[in-house]
Amino acid sequence: MKILTRRNAMLGWATWKAAKGIAKYQKAKKALPTPTAKKTSKKKKAGKALAGVAAAAGVTAVIKRKRGQSHGDSYSPPDSSSE
User: Fold this and answer.
1) DSSP letter string over 24-43?
2) Alpha-carbon distance 11 to 4, whole Å?
3) Predicted pLDDT at 2
4) What confidence category does residue 26 fall into, taking pLDDT thresholds of 50, 70 and 90?
5) What are phi and psi of 81, to 5 degrees?
6) Secondary element (H or E) of residue 50
């Protein structure tokens, strides 16, 4: 049983060391100033706006195409004005 106890102790020690290292890294990462996160570049804003306009235009084109299709099941009476 000494082997199992020693193995569990080693696993616990390794887990504790890893958790402490991760916690220190995350704390240090939060402490750094991030000026780029607050300012969004104009290129990114323009790209997002352009993508939104393109998506809206695509949806509009698809809707118009679907509404404009003739299904062939609609009945149109013959023109009676030639009599």
Assistant:
1) HHHHHHHHS--HHHH---HH
2) 10
3) 77
4) very high
5) -80, -10
6) helix 42-68
Name the one residue in this structure whose structure tokens are 């509404």: 67
The percent of the chain in helix, strand and coil, each rounded to the nearest 5, is 75, 0, 25
- Alpha-carbon distance of 48 to 78, in angstroms, equals 52
- What number of helices (H) and strands (E) belong to the chain? 3, 0
In terms of pTM, does the model score above 0.85?
no
Where does residue 52 rank: exposed (0-12), middle (13-18), buried (19+ CB within 10 A)? exposed
Q: Read off the pLDDT band of 20 (50, 70, 90).
A: very high
| 5, amino acid identity | T
